[in-house]
Design a protein that fits this description.
By secondary structure, the protein is an alpha/beta fold. The chain has one domain: 3-Layer(aba) Sandwich (Rossmann fold). It contains five helices and seven strands, in the order H-H-E-H-E-E-E-H-E-E-H-E. A seven-stranded mixed β-sheet has the order 2-1-3-4-5-6-7. Strand 4, helix 4 and strand 5 form a beta-alpha-beta unit. The longest helix is centred in the N-terminal third of the chain and has 19 residues. It is globular.
Length: about 150
Amino acid sequence: MRILFFNLLFLMPLVSKNIYLPQNSSNIIELEAKIVSQIAEAFVFDPKIYIIGSNEQLNSFFSIYSKLSSNCEDADFIYIKKDFDINKCKNKRKFFFTDNKKTYKKSSDILGAFFWFKSRPNIKISSSRARKYNLIIPSDYKRFVDK
C-alpha cells in the first residue's frame, strides 16, 4: 500500500497538466509585447515605441501590435529592458516604462513598470509621475496605480 501511495505521489505531477512544465517562451514574449503596446496606446495616441535592450523576437512581436521607432528621439513611448541612462532620451513628450520593478521604484522619471512576479504579469503605474507629465490615467488602469 505504501509503495502504491509513493508511486502516485511522485507520478501524478508528471502526467497532470500543471505549472511544472515549461511554457513556450515566445508566448510569454508575445504577451509582453501586447500588454506594453496596449499601455502605450492608453497614454499616447498612435504611439511610436522605442525598446531599449530588445532582441529580434521581441521586436517582431512589438511590430505586430504597434509602431516601432529606431531611436529614442522619434519615439513617444520608451520601454526599457536593460539599464539605461534616461537623460540620453529625456524629453517632456516621452514616457518611460520598464520591465524592472527596482528601476521603476528608483527613477522618478519612469511612469510605470511591467514585470513578471510569480509567473504572472504585473503592472505598476505611478499617479504622481502621471501628474508630472499631465497625464490622466485611464479608468481601465486605475487598479494598477502605485500610490
